Amino acid sequence: MLRIFEHVDADLGRSCLDRAVLLCPEFGAIMDRFRRNDVIGRPEVVSYGVYGELSPSTCRYVKTLAELADRFGSLDGLTVVEIGGGYGGQALVTHEVFQPERYALIDLDEALELQRAYLTASDVGGCFEFVAADDFQAAPAADLVISSYALTECYRDAALGYGEKYVVPSPRGYIVGNQLMADRLYPTDLLRLRSTGHLDREVPQSAAGNYVFWWNDAGI
Ligand SMILES: C[S@@+](CC[C@H](N)C(=O)[O-])C[C@H]1O[C@@H](n2cnc3c(N)ncnc32)[C@H](O)[C@@H]1O
Prior knowledge:
Layout: H1 2-5, H2 10-23, H3 31-34, E1 46-47, E2 53-54, H4 56-72, E3 79-83, H5 89-95, E4 102-107, H6 109-122, E5 128-132, E6 144-148, H7 156-167, E7 172-177, H8 187-193, E8 198-201, E9 211-216
Parallel strand pairs: 3-4, 3-6, 4-5, 6-7
Antiparallel strand pairs: 1-2, 7-9, 8-9
This protein binds S-adenosylmethionine (SAM).
C-alpha cells in the first residue's frame, strides 16, 4: 500500500512545507497535528529541522491545505467533496485545522474501503461520506470541490461527468491536474466548464506540466 500512494520525495516535501508556511505562517506552530497523518501505515519520514519529522506526502497535503486556506479562507461549516482521495490523507490533514460540516469522498470501491478504514482508525472526527464512483450522481452538492492528481487520471468520460456535476455548479473549486496520460481531462476542458477559473502552475512542481485550476465565486 505504501508503494501505491507515496510519490513525494524528501526535497519536494521540504518545498511543500516552505510553501505551506509561507502561505499560512500559523501552520509552523501546529506540525504536531499534521504528524498524526504519519501514525498509521508506517510511512517513511524525513527530519525537517524545526518542523520535526514528517512524511513528504503529509507535507504535500499540508501545502494543499495552506493553498485552500489562502484561496477560500476557513473551511468550517462547508460541504467539501473530494474526488479521488487516495488513502484519505488530505481528508485527515484538513480536519486537523478545519471542521467542514460534511466531507464526501468519491472514489473507486477499493480506495473507499481504505479511506474508511484509515479515517476511522485515525479517529480524526469529521462527518465523512464515502461515495462509490459509479454512484457519484448521488453525492452531495459541494460548497468546495477538491481533487489532486485524480480528476485528470480518470477516464475522460468519467472526468467530464464529474466536471458537469462539480466544476460547473460548485462555487469553489481546487483541482491539481497532471498530464500523465493522453485522452484525459485537459486544462482547456476545465476552462470550458468554468470560465471564471484560474489556471496556475503547480508550486512546487511535482511533475512537468502540473497545474492548479481553481475558482472562488463565493468570496472569502
Ligand atoms: C494518484 S491518486 C491521488 C490520491 C490523492 N488525491 C493524493 O493527492 O494523494 C488518484 C486517485 O484517484 C482515484 N480514482 C481513479 N479513478 C477514479 C474515478 N473514476 N473516480 C474517482 N476516483 C478515481 C484513485 O483511486 C486514487 O484515489
